[in-house]
Amino acid sequence: MKERPVIILHGYSDNPESADRWEALLEGAGYDATQIHIGGYVSLSNEITIKDVAEAFDRALNASIGTASEFDAIVHSTGMLVIRAWLTSYGLSGAVGEARRGRLKHLIGLAPATFGSPMAHKGRSWIGALVKGSREVGHPDFLEAGDQVLSALELGSKYTWQLAEQDLLGDVYGPDARTPYPFVLIGNTPYGGLRKVVNQAGTDGTVRWAGCGFNTRKIMVDLSLDPALEDGTGRRASVVQWHNELVPLAFVDGHDHNTIFASPGTEKDPLVRAVCRALEVGDSDAYTQWAAEFADWDDERLPPVGGARYQQFVTRLVDERGDGVPDYYLELCDAAGGRLEPLDGFEQDVHAWREDSSYRCFHVDLNALAGRSTLELRVSARSGTSLVAYYGHDSERMVSAQGRPNPKGVWDARIKIPTELQTDDGRPVKLFYPFTTTLLEIRLNREPLYGNKGQVFWWHRVIR
Fold this sequence. Notes:
Blueprint (H helix, E strand, L loop, with lengths): L5 E4 L10 H9 L7 E4 L10 H16 L5 E6 L2 H10 L6 H9 E7 L9 H4 L2 H7 L14 H7 L4 H9 L14 E7 L28 E7 L14 E3 L9 E4 L6 H4 L7 H11 L3 H11 L15 E10 L8 E7 L6 E2 L1 H4 L2 E3 L6 E7 L9 E8 L5 E4 L18 E7 L3 E3 L5 E3 L6 E12 L16
Parallel strand pairs: 1-2, 1-3, 3-4, 4-5, 5-8, 6-19, 9-19
Antiparallel strand pairs: 6-7, 9-13, 10-11, 10-14, 12-13, 14-16, 15-19, 17-18
Helix pairs in contact: 2-3
């Protein structure tokens, strides 16, 4: 009889009954019914945040299994954000953070919304609220759709960016017993029937293949520093230390976003076998063996369906103070022969986070970029006023030849992008890597103009 408790969490707008089939399968695999805890939580209230749910989960967890007991977790969709928020709520280095990492032994994500969903911003519309919102009699707002939860789930959200900086770019998960063993499984089949109208390329119907894994990198391009003052390395781009390149991502035949949680097959279903085997992993060798059996790809990381190979880029432009640049344009170009040829595969699917458009999400089919070796990123930023301009060193000048600022503070530049980079600890990293999410932060200078009346600051009288 299995002794460690298993926690099961559903996704946005779902209910605990959806996990009934998994409960029966776990009982058949030797788990005592009293050790299977299926959680339910509010996701359709406009006042509730994912952090609220994580805190409520902690209260319920401690009341059910104690404050120190180890447990495993199977989470679906938004449930992944809940458990990750619980892991990071009190930081990672303190006593509470270390204790939480030690308690969670296996983290199994079924179609996890690790970086949100392309459906989230649609759910925030009036129609989305009508379809998904609570309609209980007497409910104070039957059109509620969980606005704050959906804000976090929106592509390119500040919440998923900051959460990734905490755990995916930190030393939280790993291939040994000191940290949770993470496993990610996602269906390779989009929705059928009437729901197929919402299908988008590179998704299981709700979340993106490239946006559910833990294999995340962050690249920083700092144009706010004068290269003459740099340390001599000449590096304008750096890659934050990479931690989760070995976390397996397994594609499951025949399942979409809903069936992977609500309708798993028998114990012979590869999905069920993968989950049950994951719960038995006890050391790094077994972890490696699981990945080889259920997530075995060749060196080219072949796609789960068809010929597409997707990567997701979440970008943010900031100034030297760390404030976001809301009005900007990014374009990836082939610079062969000195001319910029825009690559359609980079900008055909772009979403700006509604609450702060300095955050953008790009969904890229890497096949459209194949064979390109002279890549440059065209960056254009606009302040919205001729009183302030953005500027990046070693790029187009902030002012015209006549010394006047560009109209409305427009700045336009070309940045060479190497296809091979190095992490901070010296390891080589490919810029393009299928079925992953890359965070890209570009830092510029924001320059208020001064000297003449009508600019941001000037001297009325100079005492000599």
